[in-house]
Amino acid sequence: MDVDAISSPDPESDQELAFEGALRPKSLDEFVGQTKVRGQLELLLKAAAMQNRAPDHILLAGPPGLGKTTLAIIVALESGKPLRMSSGPAIQHAGDLAAVLSSLVPGEVLFIDEIHRMARSAEEMLYLAMEDFRIDIMVGKGAGATSIPLELAPFTLVGATTRAGLLPNPLRDRFGFTAHLEFYDEPELERVLARAADLLGLELSGDSRAEIARRSRGTPRIANRLLRRVRDYELVHGGGASVAAVQAALELYDVDPLGLDRLDRAVMHAVLMRFDGGPVGLNTLAVSVGEEAETIESVVEPFLVRIGLLTRTPRGRVASREAWKHFGLRPPAASGAQPGLFDDDL
Ligand SMILES: Nc1ncnc2c1ncn2[C@@H]1O[C@H](COP(=O)(O)OP(=O)(O)O)[C@@H](O)[C@H]1O
Ligand SMILES: [Mg+2]
């Protein structure tokens, strides 16, 4: 893993995937935070079990690293059914989807990650499958082509997406339940860390936990990753995972006290320095940091907004007073962005 990637919300290597697997909660009870979503899922699964039917289709929406894959696995475990994992990018033709759907066993949980990236032709097949547990398979080509209906075993689709807004309405409407996952607050991240530290056999004081939680970008995946770096540091230097050790370890990996990653910092830097604090439009901002607008909107912005560094206005993105402070900068005296916004700071 390169240093820049330490706080990226996506898994960085096969090694990390294995590590994540080991730390994944295996039941709703073990799953930290997201209280509302957990309660809703619990009800949905219980009701289905009582009626002896497959639970409704579930859509999990939210930024990377908040627990979508984990919840999909939990849905299968809690309902005692097998789990089939697939992903939008792997379904490039309706035929790819037909192959998966036609081989499901009754009650199986089908997880489609990044479902917004599935091929359009497959989407249409999925509508019918979700609604009627049936698909039409095209046989032959041209004038002689016919469609043969195929009954499917009842299944539960769990879709995950970082971009719920990109899903076509007919697909979104066919999910019985949509869960929007939120960033975790610090006490919740501390619980994630306490659990992971236990599993790793690492002793971690409350203060050390808090220090890591503060820098975890509201994201359990990042919390666990930072914990791993702290464990490495402790292994090499000894002396326990003290707050000083945590700070030294995280400084070594260039994790900022707010947990901002390279891209977060690049975006804030552009808004502050290049656009005088904004307002700046999404596309302009994306071009100026050399990223896709989609990534900025679905991965970077939600966190910056959540911690109050950035606000979205009808005219574009605007840096908050906190943002100027955090980067040790002075807001321009005549900030054309939002007259009066910074007055009491001068
Ligand atoms: N609520 C949670 N409680 C404890 N650990 C969590 C929670 N959510 C996520 N994690 C941990 O974070 C890591 C990433 O979660 P994952 O489900 O893969 O995120 P996503 O699929 O949304 O990107 C997993 O290793 C998991 O152990
Ligand atoms: Mg995932």
UniProtKB/TrEMBL annotation:
- MF terms in GO: DNA helicase activity; hydrolase activity
Localization per record: Cytoplasm
Q: Which residues form a coiled coil?
A: none
- Reactions listed under catalytic activity: ATP + H2O = ADP + phosphate + H(+)
Q: What InterPro entries is this protein classified in? A: AAA+_ATPase, AAA_lid_4, DNA_helicase_Holl-junc_RuvB, P-loop_NTPase, RuvB-like_N, RuvB_wg_C, WH-like_DNA-bd_sf, WH_DNA-bd_sf
Give residues annotated as binding ATP: 23-24, 65, 68-70, 131-133, 174, 184, 221
| Keyword Cytoplasm among record annotations | yes
The main enzyme category here is hydrolase
Q: Where is the AAA+ ATPase domain?
A: 54-185
Query: Which residues does the annotation say bind DNA?
Result: 312, 317
* Annotated region described as Head domain (RuvB-H), given as residue ranges: 257-346
Where do the annotations place Mg(2+) binding? 69
Keyword list (alphabetical) reads:
ATP-binding, Cytoplasm, DNA damage, DNA recombination, DNA repair, DNA-binding, Helicase, Hydrolase, Nucleotide-binding
Under HAMAP family, the record lists: DNA_HJ_migration_RuvB
Family of this protein: Belongs to the RuvB family.
What is recorded about the domains?
A: Has 3 domains, the large (RuvB-L) and small ATPase (RuvB-S) domains and the C-terminal head (RuvB-H) domain. The head domain binds DNA, while the ATPase domains jointly bind ATP, ADP or are empty depending on the state of the subunit in the translocation cycle. During a single DNA translocation step the structure of each domain remains the same, but their relative positions change.
Its function? Answer: The RuvA-RuvB-RuvC complex processes Holliday junction (HJ) DNA during genetic recombination and DNA repair, while the RuvA-RuvB complex plays an important role in the rescue of blocked DNA replication forks via replication fork reversal (RFR). RuvA specifically binds to HJ cruciform DNA, conferring on it an open structure. The RuvB hexamer acts as an ATP-dependent pump, pulling dsDNA into and through the RuvAB complex. RuvB forms 2 homohexamers on either side of HJ DNA bound by 1 or 2 RuvA tetramers; 4 subunits per hexamer contact DNA at a time.
The molecule here is called Holliday junction branch migration complex subunit RuvB
Native organism is Antiquaquibacter oligotrophicus
Gene assigned in the entry = ruvB
